[in-house]
Amino acid sequence: MVRVDLQRVNEVKEVAKLSLSQPDHSGPLRFSQLSDNTPPVMVLDRNWDIPDNESVGAVVTRVRAQDNEGDRLQFGIEKTLNSPRSDLPFNIDKDRGVVYINQSLEEYPALPLVQL
């Protein structure tokens, strides 16, 4: 049995700077705007128990997310820093959020492997 525990990744705030000129050419007006780009709301099961003999190509879960600012989302999957392997047995469809097995799980221990 392979157990996968997911970790949440947060977005960062963005700073935008804009310069405007005054019509009488008395100098530039400057201001900075700090905008909060809130993290998307993700809906998924964060713990997966998958038989280690599950077939390659089997769907594990589907990530659903909504962005509060209405931006288009793309999904990704990365190994955690403490993952014992350099490769991952999972892949994710970047547009649909479908997570599937892309290699045999028989050699993977029950450790936190990925973050979405």
TrEMBL record:
<dbReference type="InterPro" id="IPR015919">
    <property type="entry name" value="Cadherin-like_sf"/>
</dbReference>
<dbReference type="GO" id="GO:0016020">
    <property type="term" value="C:membrane"/>
</dbReference>
<dbReference type="GO" id="GO:0005509">
    <property type="term" value="F:calcium ion binding"/>
</dbReference>
<protein>
    <submittedName>
        <fullName>Uncharacterized protein</fullName>
    </submittedName>
</protein>
